[in-house]
Structures
1.
Amino acid sequence: MADTTLMDKLVSLCKRRGFVFQSSEIYGGLGSVWDYGPLGVALKRNVKDRWWNSMVHVRDDIEGLDAAILMHPKVWEASGHVAGFTDPLVDCRQCKNRFRADDARIKGTPGQPDAQCPVCGTRGSLTEPRMFNLMFKTFMGPVEDSASVVYLRPETAQGIYVNYLNVLQSSRQRIPFGIAQIGKAFRNEITPGNFIFRTREFEQMEMQFFVEPGTDAEWFEQWRNWRMEWHLSLGLDPAKLQWHQHAGSELAHYARTAFDIQYQFPFGWQEIEGIHNRGDFDLGRHQEYSGKKLEYFDQGRNQRYLPYIVETSAGADRVTLTLLVDAYREEQVEGETRVVLGLHPALAPIKAGVFPLVKKDGMPELATTLYHELRRHFSCFYDDSGAIGRRYRRMDEAGTPFGITVDGDTVTGRSVTVRHRDSMQQERVGLDQVAGYVKEKLGAVSWELGATSK
Ligand code: GAP
């Protein structure tokens, strides 16, 4: 399958099955903003729950936080985002389009007569590059002036830094310890695209680990290992995951060392998570800009210091896209193409489909009762429309690992057929045992798998 087709097919499946829709579609959509439908929201929630579980629930050295999106504007001066979170852009005076200055489609040097606009083809119409800040700006309160400017946060990390002493003191943690947060971030990306890979509104799953200076390199390596383990636990193809170390020129202004976990997407190897050694850059800057001491007091040693920070920063939307890409496959079955999302059962939005074979002979009644019983244990979908083969196919596309069919033998012998998504094998299970059967199968692929070992 050609790679571009794979993305097209995935986008279409996501719409058809209710994973992801274009935002404001009836108005023609909004550039690089997407909405999650019933299955998408369930899948992304499973990703986030799994991350939260591995970071906060199973560890006693990481606390959770949910900081506000809007923060004091000085935060973004201190963080370096006002001055440095910029991309060089050029405008075409002719067609009014705007491009990144390093856009490979531009021929010639922007600002010079030889430069050619990649859209309208006019020569000499491109301006000199100008720096463009990627933060979304808005105003707080009734007056729209420079004194009331606030920003939509471009990363969740800063909410953690400015709360680090609050969390430390209220939770009575000691260094080394971490703070984890999941939340929306916004970037006015100039070259967004590739579906939900790079969007202007997205969710981050970030954890900041505060350590004693000098121990940071060791913690950094530890977190690198744990984060790769976590991605592997999602069932991703190990051959499609790799490390990419940032060279000096690539390093963000706050980072001393940075490694990305990359996945091999149809459009190339791309970052899904960044692990950064941020040193004391952030706490140092917030201490300077706020005038408040942010040092940690080590009672045992009677010493004060500004902790170093090891950050793990993953995109919930990117991980969701990675799962969809990794899971998508097509097979030929009896002369027809079967599309399957082979999602890890623990992540699948629907765990079981429940189907009466036909709409008569007491089957719908038994199937409905079973469906309501199973819903108490895991997410289910009831479907009585169309041929049974079509219903199985719809569930295959949704990534549902089990299909449970109520048939004539259910009425007479109180057993159902359980069909397995990947092998398409079917087996008979007692009507009263089916909840336990599916739960046991789901349990065998343990939720705890995603927990970082410590
Ligand atoms: N606090 C550090 C930070 O924000 P980053 O490398 O800019 O680092 C971290 O972003 C992660 O956030 C990325 O690995 C990616 O998964 C996600 N991310 C960043 N920009 C994104 C965008 N425009 N759309 C979707 N996800 C994005």
Note: Residues 155, 157, 187, 189, 198-199, 202, 204, 206, 271-274, 311, 313-315, 317-318 surround glycyl-adenosine-5'-phosphate (CB under 6 Å).
2.
Amino acid sequence: MAGGTELRRRRDDVPPVLSVVTPTFNEAENLPLLVEAVHRALDGIPHEVVVADDDSPDGTWQVAERLAERDQTISVLRRFHDHGLSAAVLDGMTVARGEYLAVIDADLQHDPSILPAMLDEVRSGGSDVAVGSRSTEGGGYGNWTRGRRFVSWVATFIARVVLRVTVSDPMSGFFLISRGAYEQGAPGINPRGFKILLEFIGRDRTLRVTEVGYEFRLRRHGETKLNRSVIRSYLLAVAELRLGRQVDPAFLLYVLVGMVGLAVNSLVFAVAEAAGVPRFDTGLNEAIDPVYGSFVLSVNVSILVLFGLNNEFTFWEQRYRGWKLAPAFVVFWFMSLVGTLVHVAVFTFLENSGFLLGLLGAEASRTVQNLVGAVVALVVNWYLNTTYLWRRRTR
Ligand code: GDD
Ligand code: MN
């Protein structure tokens, strides 16, 4: 457990069968309701509730400690350092004493009434992990918007393809695991981020996983803490699970963004060509004349898109905000100009060599020349961007 964590709990003599760990951040109103619902669901099954709170400003830890005064089964972790969902869950699991460990959100979006069914699945020896699932039989997403369902669907698809996990809801924050599987997996887990279930099942493919359906409910009180940076940290987590920690996962995001930029570039270029955007002479240098108007246009549109995506996504932790966006964009534009010169040089070289023209014909060769130039420029710009603009702290 991290230093600077305060643990309050009463010790009963016999460890419980099930520990229910609930991470909390500003859940003061929800927590008493959750505890009550957990007790009701687990009536007759010896259990404890471990609240892993990140020193919530709304005093969730105080509410929890007050509950614990009257209720021997509650333990409270008030965490001062290393805040974060996964880290809190892992700390909660560290102090949990049950033979089985469950994790459930405190906001009542997860349905505690399926905990006994989850426990049965693992206790019977048939599985190591039971996942509370929204997409299996008996499950549902409640009234999620189409947009949110789509994001979840894409994330699940990525996990299934890239990590080859078979569960239908790998994003679930609701699961139950045997102590054996927990102790096996815990030492290898990356405590950053929020995808704690994926950390367990993505690292150890031998785990037998089963799913129990439940209907995802609306949050009763308070609001979600997961902002749009979760998509980014999710992709980073998947990349790390797949490739290990050697490859810089930010580079993968950069390439991903670069591919979007490339698509934008190609699209704008094609549309501009079709629309007959004129070529023009700069009169500066015979080698680059005539300049393709469509090229100038597509490069500038993609520079804008790339700056936005890199700032808001790839380098989110070091992102520029407010007025600083303007100078940062200017620097980015000039760096891109260097990239663009490389791009132009490669394009022109290929064009003049006539090599692709012979192979592919006029139209296709120009598109391919454009692509090759962009890829070379991408690598040059990665170096410039990470060295001068979004300088990263060494990890
Ligand atoms: N201790 C601690 N620290 N708890 C946190 C933190 C944190 O930094 N961030 C969130 N929590 C707690 C919340 O208080 C809540 O009990 C639970 O973790 C889930 O957080 P929400 O903010 O309610 O997340 P969500 O409802 O948007 O996301 C849920 O669905 C996702 C799938 O779509 C969660 O279950 C995610 O785990 C899940 O991936
Ligand atoms: Mn929630």
Note: The pocket of guanosine-5'-diphosphate-alpha-D-mannose (ligand 1) is lined by residues 23-25, 27, 52-54, 83-85, 88, 105-107, 109, 152, 171, 173, 194, 224-226 (CB under 6 Å).
3.
Amino acid sequence: MKLFSSVNDVTDVPALVAQALAAKKDPFANNHLGKNKTISLVFLNPSLRTRMSTQKAAMNLGMNVIVLNIDKEGWALELRDNVIMNGTTVEHIREAAAVMGEYSDIIGVRSFPGLKDREEDYSESIFNKFVEFCKVPVVSLESATRHPLQSLADLVTIEELKTKARPKVVLTWAPHIKALPQAVPNSFAEWMCKADVDFVITHPEGYALSEQFTNGATITCNQDEALKDADFIYVKNWSAYEPYGAVTEGNEDWMLTNAKLNAFAPDAKIMHCLPVRRDLELSSDILDGPRSVVIHEAGNRVWAAQAVLKQMLEAL
Ligand code: CP
């Protein structure tokens, strides 16, 4: 694998999930693969899980790891072409990415969307510029529109914890005080639409995701109906795709509670990519109770990253 930016870069999804679960059983089995290889993890935005889990995965494979929080520690990057750099930016992404490629065998990049210009964000211009200029394999650590390492870990979690061959998986919108990207729900939907699950998306009016990610899903604005008999419920906020980045007030009752679960999905396991705002996005009683699998899910981020990096190392 030379690029991991979405599920479309994976030739065999069940095999990748199986490799993640194999890595979980025997973390150091492929420790020789990364000998004398370096991965650079470049963050244009904050991270806890992606940074630590990908670093741990790379170390389990025997790699050297460089982490650069370029937003805080690097030169201010110019991301636009055809501009005279007489403002605050110091280094163009063309040189910066090319130089990083000189120091790395694989590069991971995190870059969030601006949520102002949909065409710009959905063109993935920043992520694609890294891919173009660094000249080494690139793994997405979350881009403007997708978070594939998260989605792979989510699928691994569902595969591990499911109690029936084809579970019902529900993605439900949750309240928030900020406009958040669509990357996690887009990506989760894209992966679930390719998985052996009954997949339902529920959100308030005005929060429909782009159809390019949801083709094959059942979509409803009736949360109670969507939750009925769910085996897994994935909780996540996102801002509107149309009008882009908008947030409307008055949907506070969309927060998932144990009362809702008791009424509609008593056996459901509750997932969230984290970080989560307690009692705004998801109730404390769920997070602290036996239905929550969010820590288990975050733990699986290591094995998802390890499966992807293993395939990248094998292709070097
Ligand atoms: N879920 C996730 O990507 O967490 P971080 O933003 O902390 O990496």
Note: The chain has two domains: 3-146+301-315, 150-298.
